[in-house]
Amino acid sequence: MEYVDKCPECGSRRIGVGELSGYAAMTAKEKMFASSAIIADVCSDCGLIIRMRVKKPEKFAPKEW
Ligand SMILES: [Zn+2]
Question: What are the start-end ranges of the E strands in the chain?
Answer without folding.
Answer: 15-20, 26-27, 35-36, 38-43, 49-54
